[in-house]
Amino acid sequence: MLNIAAFVSGRGSNxxxxxxxxxxxxxxxxxVVSDCKECLAVNFASQNNIPVFFISLKEKDGFIGYTELxxxxxxxxxxxxxxxxFLKKIPDEFVDGFENKIINIHPALLPSFxxxxxxxxxxxxxxxxxxxxxxxATVHFVDKIYDNGKIIAQRxxxxxxxxxxxxxxxxxxxxxxxLLPYVVDKFADGKIKIENNSVIIID
Length: 203
Ligand code: GRF
Description:
The chain is α/β, with parallel strands linked by helices. Helices cover 33% and strands 25% of the residues. The chain has helices at 13-21, 40-47, 66-75, 92-97, 121-130, 165-188, and strands at residues 2-8, 27-34, 52-54, 80-83, 102-106, 134-141, 151-158, 192-195, 198-201. The longest helix is centred in the last third of the chain and has 24 residues, at 165-188. It is globular and about 50 Å long. Residues 10-14, 41, 84-85, 105-107, 173, 176 line the site of 5-O-phosphono-beta-D-ribofuranosylamine.
């Protein structure tokens, strides 16, 4: 059984896709961590009885800090942290405490269209402006630099005919909802290995 914590900031559709598509016999969603008190992802967690923790760089009413969060997640024996639409940068010390246990889903084909400020529609608008013919989704390990960690898996979508950034966003989100559950399922099966400099997914 793989114990998972999902970090969210908003809509929560990727959280939902993991919850719905990965077998309950393989994973346990032990915690949802949010930087906003009211959002669809938090509603989803509450409706599904997943404990929610509110996180902030500085502890304030109702929000805990990263040191406390790290302690809680270790206590819950979390094996994998999913950044599923989490918009804040994770502090370096926290990343150190969960080496190769934090993964992120990004709505473009990294290493293009990533980095600071590249989130949400900013990404799809940049892709549209570039006139790229393909975009897609990337799941990667999280290190101390935005969207920089080793790439685990990617899915490509054809956007040659897309008329605007919104259309690209819809097409990419669809593959995100396949890719993240696929990767989580592979983690649960122990089929993701880091060897030399690459990430290997065993079929
Ligand atoms: C997704 O596009 C994800 O790739 C990005 O943020 C968005 C979150 O969407 N990191 P949702 O909250 O999962 O619906």
